[in-house]
Amino acid sequence: MSDDPFVTHRNLLFTVAYEMLGSAADAEDVVQDTWLRWAVVDQHEVRDARAYLVRVVTRQALNRLRTVARRREDYVGEWLPEPLLTSPDVADDVGLAESVSIALLTVLETLRPAERAVFVLREVFDVPYDEIADAVDRSPAAVRQIAHRARDHVAARRPRVRVDRAQQREVVDRFVAALESGDVQSLMDVLAPDVVLVPDGGGIAGAARRPLVGPDRIARYLVGGLGKARGAVTMEPTWLNGAVGLRVAVDGTLAAAVGLVVEGGRITRLFGVANPDKLARLDAEAPLAR
Description:
By secondary structure, the chain is α+β, with helices and mostly antiparallel strands. It is built from 12 helices and 6 strands. Helix 2 (24-40) packs across helix 3 (49-73) and helix 8 (129-136) packs across helix 9.
């Protein structure tokens, strides 16, 4: 194992950047920018390498957030985070799994950049307030206020029910079986009364451009979409962003990734990413850590 602190903490830096940006591609760029700055600094003068690197990656991520803001405003349809293939070990770390879930990352998109940075650093990585203050160029007192405001904002919008692996998988299996059968009623039975489907095709893949609400509408949309597929459709349960999700392929080619939120034995949220630009990283497990 390398004794270079950057190598030691690289997975942590990627995770911080990804949670701030919701994009693995942008997160990788930010980590690379962090390495370039680390390579030229006098490392003997750095007393706490981990804190220094987290500060740098946070600042770079904030800069990137401001850069991509216009791009996301002009995005065709709903913008969802880029899904990641994760290991079962990520699911074992409940805090990490929840922090990288598509559901929470979608909520984080509603925060201002500084609020998002403070929330991620404090709530996920337990970074001290004074270190966060250095990273976001605010006073510790201001950071505490931002943290309180961001925490309340997220708490009002995040899913509150934690579901164990077995129940997640059982519900996903029922969902897949219902879809494969084409039985609209069976599909509706596995969807919660207030279920929401958020599709993301990016204007490239065929997908609705606005969220769909309600089991009947969503079930008919999904069954109808499968009926229009030009090839054999397969749906494979897999670990996405720390929870059981689905890889959807047409004639063996990856066509979509679906994240799900399960509460009370039914699916309450579906996040369907079909934009091919966001599916490039589903062949290898993402290097997440905290």
